[in-house]
Write a structure and sequence with these properties.
By secondary structure, the protein is mainly α. Helices cover about 65% and strands about 0% of the residues. Helix 3 packs antiparallel against helix 7.
């Protein structure tokens, strides 16, 4: 009986193996046919676009349309949500009490000896302070921050004051970023001219150094301040500046420096945003405006500075810059002043280069240089000075700039040479050319003056 059962199961297994073998042999052909069929099916679906349409659904959304002007409800919703977001970000920052508490903790955990007059802290103590300072301070107590502030201390410590100043600077940057973002009407990370004007106008009452300004002058002050931001930070004249660029430059520091009630006279005079500086620029504009029509003609602008700008250069100013019936308004005048007072800066050189590049070729040729220098030669004749040969001046300019192309000078060549201010002065201003031509005599006189002062000193 057992043998019969064994035989029965062995027969069944043999038959199944034989069937499976035959089936596998058949499946090779079937598999190829099935593969071809599936390929044809999927290729047809892909070509028809059905698969591509469905694949788009897997791509995360990265563009959100701004509400249109007539979608009032959506605009209000967007404004409110942004305001709530900025308030939440503001609450995440350290307030004055928390900063004071952080200072006490750092002072309590300082590790001797002192480095000169500075208290120091080790990495172990630094981590302990981080644990006690609270969740808002967690971002500041990392190995990366410690490494940034680690310099040459033989014990591997960092200065408590340097670390605290680092924290203060970060908090200030975030506060300012949030403050500027409140004026970002579009919510796109940039400020338009009107946005920045509103920001500065509301900032004026918080700056003690501007307390003496009359309210009637506020609009002119705001215009003067805003122009510096846009002249240097918006070289393509798009009409908007990234908030990130505003924070990265030093202009906001200069503006907020006016919070210091004891700011020195020298600092005020050198600060474009100070009341004396703004009044100086606007006063010059009023003095030039002889017919008191609020605009400057070419003849009126010719008296700017030392009144030695060439007529050829002034012609180019009025050809290229925005004017109204051939006269310049205050905003255009501010660009002119910023360019001439900051000739070492790339943005100022770009402004002047555009005027020198008469044919808009992107470079200056010997012809261009000669065209402008002839006006300098004519002024020298009028003042009874010995006329300098253009060939000599041309050779000096090319020697100073050392352009990549020996026959052309580009804007980048001027910037790279660090001689752009000298070259522009030689070509547009008789006083600038005279200063350059007599530089050795002026330096010698300065040295003699310094020597005599030294001799007179007790």
């Amino acid at each position: 009986m057992a043998n019969e059962k064994t035989t029965h199961w062995s027969d069944i297994l043999k038959r199944r193996l034989a069937n499976s073998t035959r089936k596998d042999e058949r499946n090779e052909d079937e598999k190829k046919a099935e593969e071809t069929e599936l390929f044809t099916k999927y290729y047809s679906e892909w070509k028809a676009g059905s698969n591509r349409d469905s694949s788009y659904k897997k791509i995360p959304r990265f563009y959100y349309r701004l509400p249109a002007e007539d979608e009032v409800l959506l605009q209000k919703l967007r404004e409110e949500s942004r305001a709530v977001f900025l308030q939440r970000k503001s609450r995440e920052l350290l307030d004055n009490e928390e900063l004071q508490n952080l200072w006490f903790l750092l002072d309590k955990h300082q590790v001797p000896p002192m480095s000169g007059e500075e208290a120091m802290i080790s990495y172990e103590a630094y981590l302990k302070v981080g644990e006690k300072a609270g969740p808002k301070c967690k971002q500041f107590f990392t190995a990366r921050v410690y490494g940034k502030l680690l310099h040459s201390d033989p014990y591997g410590r960092i200065s408590i004051m340097q670390f605290f100043n680092y924290v203060m600077r970060k908090v200030w940057l975030h506060q300012t970023r949030i403050g500027l973002s409140l004026y970002d009407v579009a919510g796109q990370g940039y400020l338009r001219e009107s946005d920045l004007e509103n920001y500065i106008l509301e900032l004026i009452p918080t700056l003690p150094q501007l307390d003496g300004l009359e309210k009637s002058f506020y609009s002119f002050y705001v215009c003067t301040a805003v122009r510096k931001f846009f002249f240097f930070l918006d070289p393509l004249r798009t009409g908007k500046i990234k908030i990130q660029d505003i924070l990265a430059c030093s202009f906001l520091d200069d503006l907020l420096e006016l919070r210091d009630e004891e700011l020195s006279k020298e600092s005020q005079e050198s600060n474009w945003f100070s009341a004396p500086s703004a009044l100086r620029v606007y006063g010059q504009y009023l003095n030039l405006d002889k017919d008191h029509n609020g605009m400057l003609s070419k003849e009126e602008l010719s008296r700017y500075g030392t009144a030695t700008l060439t007529a050829v250069f002034l012609d180019r100013v009025y050809q290229e810059c925005l004017t109204y019936d051939g006269e310049m308004d205050y905003k255009t005048y501010l660009d002119f002043v910023l360019a001439l007072e900051n000739r070492k800066e790339p943005a100022a050189l770009q402004y002047i280069f555009k005027l020198l590049d008469m044919e808009n070729q992107g470079y200056l040729t010997v012809f261009s240089l000669n065209y402008f220098f002839r006006a300098i030669q004519e002024q020298m004749k009028i003042h009874g000075q010995e006329v300098i040969s253009f060939q000599d001046v041309k050779d000096e300019i090319f020697d100073m700039v050392k352009p990549k192309d020996p026959y052309k000078i580009t804007l980048q060549d001027l910037v790279n040479s660090c001689q752009g201010d000298t070259v522009s002065s030689i070509l547009i201003d008789l006083n600038g050319f005279w200063t350059y031509e007599n530089r050795e005599v002026l330096v010698a006189n300065d040295n003699e003056g310094n020597s005599s002062l030294d001799l007179d000193d007790p």
